[in-house]
Amino acid sequence: MTLQWTAVALFLYGEIAVNLLLCIPFISARRWRLVFSWRIWNWLSPYWNRCFFTMIMVLIVLFIDAFREVRKYSGPEPIQDASVNPNLHDHVLMKLFRGQRNLYMSGFSLFLWLILRRVVTLLNQAAVTVESSAGLQAQMDNAVKAAKQHQDDNLMLKQALLDEENSMSSKNQQLRLEVEELAGQLKAAEEAVHKSDAEVEAMKRQAKGLAQEYDRLLREHHQLQNLQSAEDKKDQ
Fold first, then answer.
1. Can you list the residues of the chain whose pLDDT is less than 50?
2. Closest Cα to residue 52, out of 6, 117, 107, 8?
3. What's residue 108's pLDDT?
4. CB–CB of 59/110 below 8 Å?
5. Is the full-model pTM beyond 0.90?
6. CA–CA separation, 43 and 59 (whole Å)
7. How many degrees, rounded to 5, is the angle at CA 18 between CA 119 and CA 8?
8. Among 82, 162, 191, 217, which lies 20 to 30 A Cα-Cα from 234?
9. What are the distances in angstroms from CA 24 to CA 115, 119, 168?
């Protein structure tokens, strides 16, 4: 095998190994994204597209060359020439085998090269999707937590308002009872005041009557004194 086809074979084996490595199930897409974010890939990224298309062109050229070889040694003329000479027949079959081998190697290398780029792209997209999903999940969890917190706050506020309403109702009932009690006391005080006013008025009337009686008795006393004085003068 010539040097170029040896390089193609090694390239094919490397592609198979890398594709198998990328398809390992227990290595997540986020880990591959961390690997792809190394500095060396950032340094190689400006040359990546150029290298990719260059390898495609080389593999296409090699594929066309191998296809030409296969078509050359699988035609009717080499077979007819080889039927005359057995050694030539073996040589033609060997050339045909090498051409087919080179055709398969270049074709699978080209196919796996395209698959490799697609797998890397899908892994990056899957990692971005996972990160976005994780971010959305975190936002959704925060939103659910906030909604639950608001719901708990609303329940606490409703309970506080209900307790406050019950407290106000009990306070209003107590105040109503106190007002009724004070109204009863006020009514009793008014009755007592009226009774006191009546007693005072009676006492005033009694005092007025006593004063009039005292004045009458005083006049009678003066009259009696005057009469006694007059009699005493007559006796002298």
1. none
2. 117
3. 92
4. yes
5. no
6. 25
7. 110
8. 217
9. 15, 12, 70
